[in-house]
Amino acid sequence: MASQSLCRHATLPIPEPCIQTPVRASVTHPVTTTLACNTQPPLHTLFVERGGTTHTPQPSGATSSAGSILPVGDITSVIPDHEADVAVLEEPEHLSWYHHGTRWTDKFKHVVGVMHTNYLDYARREEGGAMKEAFLKTMNSWMCRVHCHKVIKLSDAVQPLPRQETMFVHGVSPSFLRVGESKAAKVAETGTAGWNKGVYFIGKVLWAKGYTELLDRMKEHLARTGADDSLALKFNGAKDHADSTIQDYKVFVNPSLSDVVATTTAEALAMGKFVVCADHPSNQFFKAFPNCLVYSTSEQFSECLTRALTTDPKPLSPMELRALTWEAATERFLDVAELREGGTPVLERMMDGALAAVHNMLTGSESVRQVTGAGTRTRDMPARVTDYQPLESDVGGCFDNQDRARTANRVHKRSAISASATAAAVAALTAGLPGE
Fold first, then answer.
1. Peptide linkage before 281 cis (omega within 30 of 0)
2. pLDDT-based confidence at 155, cuts 50/70/90?
3. Could you read off the pLDDT of 399-425 as tens digits, one per residue?
């Protein structure tokens, strides 16, 4: 199945200095792919992103009251044993919260989990955030322990986890690298890269993605520089980060404190821009780049922004450009993904087995699944993807956002009333037709 994504963008201009914000919100469908590596005999590697069958409590495919996409059934059951060599799980905790069936580590010889979402930050912003954060922290550690031989965190913005390694194992599209190479070539030829625009910001349409921090830093900067501190906001049309109208912006500002690693920061650096970002674990990998300007205070933010606006970024060296490629990311991944000598101690494996048994027992109960927000009929894998149809009433688990659940229920009720009225009107019309 090919990876698909749906992205929406908008621009957000802010006066003095102008910050244009192509805001990106994306929904990525789960993907499973089998890759046969060039080994003798072939080594089969399964890459899984969030699940096999999509579960969204709303038939329209909109975000559920939990704000998540959850897997339906046990994905391991459809993988032939002779192909179960290595599994790479994107978001292993997310995949396993409601997993019922064979442990990934029992099915596969080697399981690597890649963590790149700070779920605790999202949880603490919800109603009852402190309780949800504490519970989720325990669950995430539990799931990674019983389902992974090795866990790779993209940065230490992710909570501490069993058997963890921290390494940035993502890369950027070649399209961004080509922009950076063209800017470097232009500097070599003419002495200037042609940066004729100022500052911009790009991120998902979520307050957690740094909007609060951005507005606070900008108001403080404008007040400090004596400019008008009013921030009139205006959203404009759709743009991709690699769009030609964005390539001439010189400075990308990323004040987000919720990211594990901001892909947009890597993309901006690859295009040869200055990046002004917070001193935060999510930005640790980028600090080595000369065009990455890091701030810890509001005053330092102003200093970094002023420097970026009054000087030109240094063209990236071939080595720096390569560090942002997927080839380099794959090399880093292979280096940290392998098991070290010694393996897991026997007592630790016994404890893992006991924890897995408890979790499997709990997730086997339909009542537990419904109360905690997994939805009904999601435990077992359907014979075909199209056999699974979520119920409209499948919202409002104890860990879900209750405001979203109530809104969803109101929508469902209105839809049901509308459907009933339509059916009644059709019945009345049919009853009045000749021959009835």
1. no
2. very high
3. 666 665 556 555 555 554 555 555 555
